[in-house]
Amino acid sequence: MGKCFKLCALMMGCILAFGCAAKNNQREDSVDSVQAERFRRSYEAAFNSNERESGQQLLRKARSAIGTPYVRGGTTPDGFDCSGFVCWTYKSVGVKLPRTAREQSVIGQRITNVEDMRAGDIVAFRHPRRGYHTGIYVGDGKFIHSPRKRTKVRVNSLDDPYFKNTFLGARRVKVEGGENMVAQAETRLNDFAEERAVRELSRDKRKAVKSSARASKRDKSRDDSRGKKKDKIIEVASNDKKSSAVDRQQSSASKKSSKASAKASSGKSADKASSAKGRSGKSSDKASSAKGSSGKSSAKDSAGKASSGKASASKDKPAKSSKSSDQKAESKKSDRKKTAPSKVANKSESKGKKDQPKGKDGKS
Protein backbone atom coordinates (compact mmCIF):
# COMPACT_ATOMS: atom_id res chain seq x y z
CA MET A 1 0.00 0.00 0.00
CA GLY A 2 2.84 2.36 0.76
CA LYS A 3 4.44 1.76 -2.61
CA CYS A 4 1.19 2.46 -4.46
CA PHE A 5 0.70 5.68 -2.54
CA LYS A 6 4.22 6.82 -3.44
CA LEU A 7 3.64 6.09 -7.16
CA CYS A 8 0.41 8.07 -7.17
CA ALA A 9 2.14 11.02 -5.52
CA LEU A 10 4.91 10.99 -8.15
CA MET A 11 2.38 10.91 -11.01
CA MET A 12 0.47 13.84 -9.56
CA GLY A 13 3.67 15.82 -9.25
CA CYS A 14 4.63 15.14 -12.85
CA ILE A 15 1.22 16.18 -14.09
CA LEU A 16 1.37 19.43 -12.15
CA ALA A 17 4.85 20.18 -13.50
CA PHE A 18 3.81 19.62 -17.12
CA GLY A 19 0.70 21.75 -16.68
CA CYS A 20 2.67 24.68 -15.35
CA ALA A 21 5.15 24.45 -18.22
CA ALA A 22 2.33 24.45 -20.82
CA LYS A 23 0.77 27.52 -19.23
CA ASN A 24 4.08 29.36 -19.40
CA ASN A 25 4.50 28.44 -23.09
CA GLN A 26 0.99 29.67 -23.92
CA ARG A 27 1.72 32.96 -22.19
CA GLU A 28 4.93 33.38 -24.17
CA ASP A 29 3.14 32.60 -27.47
CA SER A 30 0.39 35.09 -26.72
CA VAL A 31 3.00 37.75 -25.90
CA ASP A 32 4.82 37.07 -29.20
CA SER A 33 1.59 37.28 -31.24
CA VAL A 34 0.63 40.53 -29.56
CA GLN A 35 4.05 41.98 -30.33
CA ALA A 36 3.84 40.87 -33.95
CA GLU A 37 0.40 42.39 -34.31
CA ARG A 38 1.64 45.66 -32.81
CA PHE A 39 4.63 45.68 -35.18
CA ARG A 40 2.40 44.98 -38.19
CA ARG A 41 0.02 47.74 -37.23
CA SER A 42 2.81 50.19 -36.69
CA TYR A 43 4.39 49.24 -40.03
CA GLU A 44 1.08 49.56 -41.85
CA ALA A 45 0.46 52.89 -40.20
CA ALA A 46 3.92 54.10 -41.21
CA PHE A 47 3.42 52.75 -44.75
CA ASN A 48 0.00 54.29 -45.01
CA SER A 49 1.38 57.55 -43.73
CA ASN A 50 4.16 57.37 -46.29
CA GLU A 51 1.65 56.54 -48.98
CA ARG A 52 -0.56 59.36 -47.84
CA GLU A 53 2.36 61.74 -47.87
CA SER A 54 3.44 60.56 -51.32
CA GLY A 55 -0.19 60.73 -52.51
CA GLN A 56 -0.51 64.25 -51.14
CA GLN A 57 2.75 65.18 -52.81
CA LEU A 58 1.50 63.71 -56.12
CA LEU A 59 -1.73 65.65 -55.81
CA ARG A 60 0.10 68.90 -55.07
CA LYS A 61 2.39 68.36 -58.07
CA ALA A 62 -0.53 67.45 -60.37
CA ARG A 63 -2.64 70.41 -59.27
CA SER A 64 0.28 72.74 -59.85
CA ALA A 65 0.20 71.81 -63.57
CA ILE A 66 -3.46 72.77 -64.08
CA GLY A 67 -3.70 75.23 -66.96
CA THR A 68 -0.60 73.96 -68.78
CA PRO A 69 -1.31 73.70 -72.53
CA TYR A 70 -1.38 70.41 -74.38
CA VAL A 71 1.75 69.69 -76.40
CA ARG A 72 2.17 66.41 -78.20
CA GLY A 73 5.16 64.53 -76.74
CA GLY A 74 5.64 67.18 -74.01
CA THR A 75 7.02 66.20 -70.57
CA THR A 76 7.83 69.62 -69.07
CA PRO A 77 5.74 72.38 -67.51
CA ASP A 78 5.92 74.18 -70.88
CA GLY A 79 3.52 71.59 -72.30
CA PHE A 80 2.23 68.07 -71.64
CA ASP A 81 0.48 65.28 -73.34
CA CYS A 82 -1.50 62.78 -71.24
CA SER A 83 1.28 60.23 -70.57
CA GLY A 84 3.93 62.98 -70.25
CA PHE A 85 1.88 64.65 -67.52
CA VAL A 86 1.61 61.35 -65.54
CA CYS A 87 5.36 60.67 -65.92
CA TRP A 88 6.23 64.18 -64.70
CA THR A 89 4.03 63.93 -61.57
CA TYR A 90 5.35 60.48 -60.54
CA LYS A 91 8.92 61.54 -61.20
CA SER A 92 8.51 64.14 -58.45
CA VAL A 93 8.19 61.31 -55.88
CA GLY A 94 11.02 59.24 -57.33
CA VAL A 95 9.07 56.75 -59.46
CA LYS A 96 10.03 56.24 -63.08
CA LEU A 97 7.07 55.28 -65.28
CA PRO A 98 6.98 54.13 -68.92
CA ARG A 99 6.42 56.85 -71.48
CA THR A 100 3.33 55.72 -73.42
CA ALA A 101 -0.26 55.60 -72.17
CA ARG A 102 -0.61 51.99 -73.29
CA GLU A 103 2.33 50.94 -71.07
CA GLN A 104 1.03 53.02 -68.17
CA SER A 105 -2.33 51.24 -68.41
CA VAL A 106 -0.76 47.81 -67.56
CA ILE A 107 1.66 48.59 -64.69
CA GLY A 108 1.02 48.18 -60.95
CA GLN A 109 -2.04 46.70 -59.29
CA ARG A 110 -5.30 46.73 -61.18
CA ILE A 111 -8.37 48.27 -59.49
CA THR A 112 -11.73 48.08 -61.22
CA ASN A 113 -14.12 49.59 -58.63
CA VAL A 114 -14.17 53.35 -58.22
CA GLU A 115 -14.91 52.94 -54.48
CA ASP A 116 -11.56 51.19 -53.94
CA MET A 117 -9.52 53.85 -55.74
CA ARG A 118 -7.18 56.20 -53.85
CA ALA A 119 -5.81 59.64 -54.61
CA GLY A 120 -2.71 59.32 -56.77
CA ASP A 121 -3.82 56.18 -58.68
CA ILE A 122 -3.41 56.19 -62.44
CA VAL A 123 -6.72 56.08 -64.35
CA ALA A 124 -6.67 54.52 -67.85
CA PHE A 125 -9.07 54.91 -70.77
CA ARG A 126 -9.26 53.43 -74.25
CA HIS A 127 -11.15 54.84 -77.21
CA PRO A 128 -11.65 52.67 -80.32
CA ARG A 129 -10.23 55.34 -82.66
CA ARG A 130 -8.21 57.69 -80.42
CA GLY A 131 -6.40 54.94 -78.53
CA TYR A 132 -5.22 54.94 -74.88
CA HIS A 133 -5.42 57.87 -72.43
CA THR A 134 -4.21 58.25 -68.81
CA GLY A 135 -4.63 60.66 -65.89
CA ILE A 136 -4.23 60.92 -62.10
CA TYR A 137 -7.13 60.27 -59.72
CA VAL A 138 -7.72 63.02 -57.11
CA GLY A 139 -10.75 61.55 -55.27
CA ASP A 140 -14.52 62.09 -55.31
CA GLY A 141 -14.76 60.51 -58.78
CA LYS A 142 -12.53 63.15 -60.40
CA PHE A 143 -9.11 63.08 -62.09
CA ILE A 144 -6.52 65.46 -63.59
CA HIS A 145 -5.31 64.96 -67.15
CA SER A 146 -4.15 66.67 -70.34
CA PRO A 147 -6.98 65.94 -72.78
CA ARG A 148 -6.10 66.83 -76.40
CA LYS A 149 -4.95 69.54 -78.81
CA ARG A 150 -5.96 73.16 -78.17
CA THR A 151 -6.80 72.31 -74.52
CA LYS A 152 -5.07 72.63 -71.15
CA VAL A 153 -4.51 70.41 -68.11
CA ARG A 154 -7.79 70.29 -66.22
CA VAL A 155 -10.03 68.30 -63.85
CA ASN A 156 -12.82 66.10 -65.21
CA SER A 157 -15.32 63.65 -63.70
CA LEU A 158 -15.41 59.91 -64.30
CA ASP A 159 -19.20 60.22 -64.64
CA ASP A 160 -18.75 62.12 -67.89
CA PRO A 161 -20.35 59.94 -70.66
CA TYR A 162 -17.21 59.90 -72.81
CA PHE A 163 -14.89 58.83 -69.98
CA LYS A 164 -17.48 56.50 -68.44
CA ASN A 165 -17.79 54.57 -71.68
CA THR A 166 -14.02 54.35 -72.30
CA PHE A 167 -12.89 53.72 -68.69
CA LEU A 168 -10.61 50.65 -68.31
CA GLY A 169 -9.76 50.90 -64.60
CA ALA A 170 -7.16 52.27 -62.20
CA ARG A 171 -3.53 51.26 -61.57
CA ARG A 172 -1.90 51.55 -58.17
CA VAL A 173 1.89 51.99 -58.11
CA LYS A 174 3.97 51.60 -54.91
CA VAL A 175 5.94 54.74 -54.33
CA GLU A 176 8.61 53.13 -52.07
CA GLY A 177 8.68 49.73 -53.67
CA GLY A 178 11.75 50.43 -55.75
CA GLU A 179 10.23 48.52 -58.66
CA ASN A 180 11.22 49.18 -62.26
CA MET A 181 7.90 50.12 -63.82
CA VAL A 182 9.36 50.31 -67.33
CA ALA A 183 10.57 46.71 -67.23
CA GLN A 184 7.30 45.65 -65.65
CA ALA A 185 5.35 47.35 -68.44
CA GLU A 186 7.51 45.69 -71.09
CA THR A 187 7.11 42.22 -69.58
CA ARG A 188 3.38 42.66 -69.11
CA LEU A 189 2.90 43.93 -72.64
CA ASN A 190 4.89 40.96 -73.93
CA ASP A 191 2.73 38.66 -71.82
CA PHE A 192 -0.39 40.36 -73.13
CA ALA A 193 0.88 40.04 -76.69
CA GLU A 194 1.58 36.34 -76.15
CA GLU A 195 -1.82 35.85 -74.57
CA ARG A 196 -3.40 37.70 -77.43
CA ALA A 197 -1.51 35.57 -79.96
CA VAL A 198 -2.60 32.42 -78.13
CA ARG A 199 -6.19 33.66 -78.08
CA GLU A 200 -6.06 34.44 -81.77
CA LEU A 201 -4.60 31.00 -82.50
CA SER A 202 -7.28 29.34 -80.43
CA ARG A 203 -9.93 31.42 -82.19
CA ASP A 204 -8.47 30.46 -85.56
CA LYS A 205 -8.47 26.81 -84.53
CA ARG A 206 -12.05 27.06 -83.33
CA LYS A 207 -13.04 28.78 -86.54
CA ALA A 208 -11.22 26.11 -88.56
CA VAL A 209 -12.93 23.36 -86.57
CA LYS A 210 -16.30 25.05 -86.95
CA SER A 211 -15.75 25.60 -90.66
CA SER A 212 -14.64 21.99 -91.14
CA ALA A 213 -17.66 20.80 -89.16
CA ARG A 214 -19.93 23.00 -91.25
CA ALA A 215 -18.26 21.76 -94.44
CA SER A 216 -18.67 18.15 -93.31
CA LYS A 217 -22.31 18.82 -92.45
CA ARG A 218 -22.82 20.42 -95.84
CA ASP A 219 -21.14 17.47 -97.55
CA LYS A 220 -23.28 15.04 -95.57
CA SER A 221 -26.41 16.99 -96.36
CA ARG A 222 -25.43 17.11 -100.02
CA ASP A 223 -24.72 13.38 -100.05
CA ASP A 224 -28.01 12.72 -98.29
CA SER A 225 -29.85 14.96 -100.72
CA ARG A 226 -28.14 13.28 -103.66
CA GLY A 227 -28.98 9.84 -102.26
CA LYS A 228 -32.57 10.92 -101.70
CA LYS A 229 -32.72 12.30 -105.23
CA LYS A 230 -31.32 9.04 -106.60
CA ASP A 231 -33.85 7.07 -104.57
CA LYS A 232 -36.61 9.33 -105.82
CA ILE A 233 -35.40 8.94 -109.40
CA ILE A 234 -35.30 5.16 -108.98
CA GLU A 235 -38.75 5.20 -107.43
CA VAL A 236 -40.06 7.41 -110.21
CA ALA A 237 -38.47 5.13 -112.84
CA SER A 238 -39.95 2.04 -111.21
CA ASN A 239 -43.31 3.76 -110.92
CA ASP A 240 -43.03 4.78 -114.56
CA LYS A 241 -42.23 1.20 -115.53
CA LYS A 242 -45.14 -0.07 -113.48
CA SER A 243 -47.45 2.56 -114.91
CA SER A 244 -46.23 1.82 -118.45
CA ALA A 245 -46.82 -1.92 -117.89
CA VAL A 246 -50.27 -1.19 -116.50
CA ASP A 247 -50.94 1.14 -119.42
CA ARG A 248 -49.80 -1.56 -121.84
CA GLN A 249 -52.04 -4.11 -120.17
CA GLN A 250 -54.92 -1.69 -120.23
CA SER A 251 -54.24 -0.78 -123.87
CA SER A 252 -54.03 -4.46 -124.85
CA ALA A 253 -57.25 -5.18 -122.96
CA SER A 254 -58.91 -2.17 -124.57
CA LYS A 255 -57.67 -3.31 -127.99
CA LYS A 256 -59.01 -6.79 -127.37
CA SER A 257 -62.32 -5.41 -126.19
CA SER A 258 -62.46 -3.04 -129.18
CA LYS A 259 -61.70 -5.91 -131.53
CA ALA A 260 -64.40 -8.02 -129.91
CA SER A 261 -66.86 -5.15 -130.07
CA ALA A 262 -65.87 -4.49 -133.70
CA LYS A 263 -66.42 -8.17 -134.53
CA ALA A 264 -69.75 -8.13 -132.75
CA SER A 265 -70.77 -4.90 -134.49
CA SER A 266 -69.58 -6.28 -137.86
CA GLY A 267 -71.63 -9.44 -137.21
CA LYS A 268 -74.63 -7.35 -136.28
CA SER A 269 -74.14 -5.17 -139.36
CA ALA A 270 -73.80 -8.31 -141.52
CA ASP A 271 -76.99 -9.66 -140.00
CA LYS A 272 -78.70 -6.37 -140.58
CA ALA A 273 -77.37 -6.26 -144.15
CA SER A 274 -78.52 -9.83 -144.78
CA SER A 275 -81.91 -9.06 -143.26
CA ALA A 276 -82.08 -5.91 -145.37
CA LYS A 277 -81.06 -7.90 -148.42
CA GLY A 278 -83.76 -10.47 -147.59
CA ARG A 279 -86.29 -7.68 -147.17
CA SER A 280 -85.19 -6.10 -150.47
CA GLY A 281 -85.36 -9.52 -152.17
CA LYS A 282 -88.84 -10.04 -150.81
CA SER A 283 -89.89 -6.59 -151.97
CA SER A 284 -88.37 -7.23 -155.41
CA ASP A 285 -90.16 -10.54 -155.57
CA LYS A 286 -93.37 -8.81 -154.59
CA ALA A 287 -92.77 -6.17 -157.26
CA SER A 288 -91.94 -8.76 -159.87
CA SER A 289 -95.04 -10.74 -158.95
CA ALA A 290 -97.10 -7.57 -159.11
CA LYS A 291 -95.59 -6.74 -162.46
CA GLY A 292 -96.23 -10.30 -163.66
CA SER A 293 -99.85 -10.10 -162.60
CA SER A 294 -100.22 -6.78 -164.37
CA GLY A 295 -98.59 -8.27 -167.43
CA LYS A 296 -100.91 -11.25 -167.30
CA SER A 297 -103.93 -8.97 -166.98
CA SER A 298 -102.76 -6.89 -169.93
CA ALA A 299 -102.10 -10.06 -171.91
CA LYS A 300 -105.58 -11.31 -171.07
CA ASP A 301 -107.05 -8.01 -172.20
CA SER A 302 -105.11 -8.15 -175.41
CA ALA A 303 -106.12 -11.75 -175.91
CA GLY A 304 -109.80 -10.85 -175.31
CA LYS A 305 -109.49 -8.04 -177.80
CA ALA A 306 -107.86 -10.33 -180.30
CA SER A 307 -110.55 -12.99 -179.86
CA SER A 308 -113.25 -10.39 -180.22
CA GLY A 309 -111.55 -9.07 -183.32
CA LYS A 310 -111.25 -12.56 -184.72
CA ALA A 311 -114.89 -13.18 -184.00
CA SER A 312 -115.87 -9.98 -185.68
CA ALA A 313 -113.58 -10.75 -188.57
CA SER A 314 -115.11 -14.18 -188.99
CA LYS A 315 -118.48 -12.64 -188.96
CA ASP A 316 -117.45 -9.88 -191.43
CA LYS A 317 -116.31 -10.31 -194.84
CA PRO A 318 -113.16 -12.19 -195.65
CA ALA A 319 -111.76 -9.02 -197.22
CA LYS A 320 -111.32 -7.39 -193.81
CA SER A 321 -109.15 -10.15 -192.35
CA SER A 322 -105.97 -8.36 -193.37
CA LYS A 323 -107.04 -5.16 -191.66
CA SER A 324 -107.86 -7.01 -188.49
CA SER A 325 -104.43 -8.62 -188.51
CA ASP A 326 -102.83 -5.23 -188.92
CA GLN A 327 -104.79 -3.86 -186.03
CA LYS A 328 -103.73 -6.81 -183.90
CA ALA A 329 -100.12 -6.13 -184.65
CA GLU A 330 -100.45 -2.46 -183.76
CA SER A 331 -102.23 -3.28 -180.51
CA LYS A 332 -99.48 -5.74 -179.61
CA LYS A 333 -96.84 -3.05 -180.22
CA SER A 334 -98.69 -0.54 -178.07
CA ASP A 335 -99.08 -3.08 -175.31
CA ARG A 336 -95.37 -3.90 -175.45
CA LYS A 337 -94.41 -0.22 -175.15
CA LYS A 338 -96.72 0.26 -172.21
CA THR A 339 -95.58 -2.86 -170.38
CA ALA A 340 -91.80 -2.51 -170.95
CA PRO A 341 -90.56 -0.45 -167.89
CA SER A 342 -88.50 -3.35 -166.52
CA LYS A 343 -87.08 -6.76 -167.40
CA VAL A 344 -89.62 -8.49 -165.24
CA ALA A 345 -92.42 -6.88 -167.23
CA ASN A 346 -90.79 -8.04 -170.47
CA LYS A 347 -90.54 -11.55 -169.09
CA SER A 348 -94.15 -11.45 -168.04
CA GLU A 349 -95.16 -10.09 -171.45
CA SER A 350 -93.14 -12.81 -173.10
CA LYS A 351 -94.97 -15.33 -170.97
CA GLY A 352 -98.26 -13.65 -171.93
CA LYS A 353 -97.30 -13.82 -175.61
CA LYS A 354 -96.53 -17.48 -175.25
CA ASP A 355 -99.97 -17.96 -173.72
CA GLN A 356 -101.67 -16.09 -176.59
CA PRO A 357 -103.07 -18.38 -179.37
CA LYS A 358 -101.41 -18.33 -182.74
CA GLY A 359 -103.42 -18.44 -185.90
CA LYS A 360 -106.21 -16.54 -187.39
CA ASP A 361 -109.10 -18.67 -186.12
CA GLY A 362 -108.06 -18.86 -182.46
CA LYS A 363 -110.69 -18.30 -179.80
CA SER A 364 -110.40 -17.38 -176.20
Q: How would you characterize the overall build of this protein?
A:
With 364 residues, the protein is an alpha+beta fold. Among the domains are: 17-179, endopeptidase fold (from Nostoc punctiforme), CATH 3.90.1720.10; 180-234. The protein has helices at residues 2-64, 82-91, 101-104, 161-166, 181-315, 321-338, 343-355, and strands spanning 75-76, 79-80, 109-111, 122-127, 131-139, 142-145, 154-157, 167-172. Strands 3-8-4-5-6-7 form a six-stranded antiparallel beta sheet. α1 crosses α2, α5 (181-315) runs antiparallel to α6 (321-338) and α5 (181-315) runs parallel beside α7 (343-355).
Give a topology summary.
Layout: H1 2-64, E1 75-76, E2 79-80, H2 82-91, H3 101-104, E3 109-111, E4 122-127, E5 131-139, E6 142-145, E7 154-157, H4 161-166, E8 167-172, H5 181-315, H6 321-338, H7 343-355
Antiparallel strand pairs: 1-2, 3-8, 4-5, 4-8, 5-6, 6-7
Helix pairs in contact: 1-2, 5-6, 5-7
In short:
By secondary structure, the protein is an alpha+beta fold. Among the domains are: 163 residues, endopeptidase fold (from Nostoc punctiforme), CATH 3.90.1720; 55 residues.
Can you tell me the overall shape?
Answer: elongated
How many distinct helices?
7
C-alpha Rg, in Å? 75 Å
Task: Specify the CATH homologous superfamily of one domain.
Answer: endopeptidase domain like (from Nostoc punctiforme)
Supply database-style keywords.
364 residues, single chain, disordered C terminus, endopeptidase fold (from Nostoc punctiforme), 8 strands, two-stranded antiparallel sheet, alpha+beta, 68% helix
